[in-house]
Specification:
It comes from Microlunatus soli. The protein has 6 helices and 11 strands. The protein is globular. A 7-stranded mixed beta sheet has the order 3-2-1-4-5-11-10, sandwiched between helices. Helices cover 21% and strands 31% of the residues. α5 packs across α6. Bound molecules: S-adenosylmethionine (SAM). S-adenosylmethionine binds next to β2.
């Protein structure tokens, strides 16, 4: 599979390429209501993270606009964040609790912030935004380096959709949404099972037939590979749930919330 993902396909006028795949034009709509921004979805994650922090300070890798970090800080947890995109990070302080989140602009594979944390977390599939195995190992090692002994690292990420791939096929659709006006949206993931690279592909067509197609690059890792990354970083699996409701992780789970503990 050739990788035609190209940052220039999503950049709009005024966007800073240094903000990566989350520049101003994406950040401006990131907090729109619905989906991951539903209060119930956010609070389910915040409930678990608050309990796991157990009164200690927490660090969010790829804090984004503070969707999770701000309400966690609003509960009284001391929260720091690392974020690549200034456009995303600029929105943290405007949320209730967000003015108490200490955000450092940097790359979570290597950026260090002061503190000795009881919890580090990386949610909403964002480990997959790091597109090399070495880079993902670096994320685990950097998380462990911020944790006190016994501290916890949490990842929320989808299970790769490989079981949905029939032989000879490399794409899994996730949304097909035609509009009444003859436009619509189609989204699909395309997997390369040799390299573990995948792209999320987004095709939008307006009523007049004009289209936009862009692809965002990711790397998938099976949960067991993440357990090995954790071991490399000096951590061991403590919990694996299928979601923030702490339901059992099974062969049919489409996502996991995994918790590793620093030795
Ligand atoms: C899907 S958003 C998640 C944001 C937030 N954690 C949330 O749950 O809403 C992914 C975020 O990861 C950030 N990001 C991607 N790669 C990064 C990296 N290597 N270091 C720091 N942030 C990164 C992006 O800029 C973006 O804000």
């Amino acid at each position: 599979m050739s990788d035609q993902s190209d940052l220039s396909t999503i950049l709009a006028a005024g966007d800073d390429p240094a903000d990566g795949w989350f520049p101003e034009s994406v950040a401006a709509d990131y907090d729109n209501p619905g989906g991951a921004n539903e209060a119930a979805t956010i609070m389910a994650a915040v409930d678990v993270l608050e309990a796991l922090a157990d009164g200690g300070p927490a660090l969010e890798f790829a804090v984004g606009t503070g969707r999770i970090a701000a309400p966690l800080a609003d509960r009284g947890v001391t929260v720091s964040g690392i974020e690549l995109s200034r456009a995303m990070a600029e929105r943290v302080a405007a949320k209730p609790g967000g003015d108490r989140v200490d955000v450092t602009i940097g790359d979570m594979t290597s950026t260090r912030v002061p503190g000795d944390f009881s919890l580090a977390f990386l949610v909403f599939n964002t480990i997959s935004n790091v597109t090399s195995q070495d880079g993902q190992v670096d994320v685990f090692c950097n998380a462990a380096a911020h944790l006190r002994p016994g501290g916890l690292f949490v990842i929320e990420v989808g299970v790769p959709g490989l079981r949905q791939l029939p032989p000879g096929q490399d794409t899994v659709p996730f949304t097909v949404a035609p509009n009444a006006d003859r436009g619509g949206y189609v989204g699909f993931d395309q997997y390369d099972v040799v390299t573990q690279q995948f792209t999320s592909n987004h095709v939008s067509v307006t009523a007049d037939g004009a289209g936009r197609f862009y692809r965002i690059p990711f790397r998938y890792a099976w949960p067991a590979e993440m357990d090995l990354m954790a071991r490399i970083a000096g951590m061991r699996l403590k919990h694996r749930w299928s979601g923030w409701d702490r339901a059992e992780f099974t062969a049919d789970s489409t996502s996991h919330v995994s918790v590793w503990q620093k030795d």
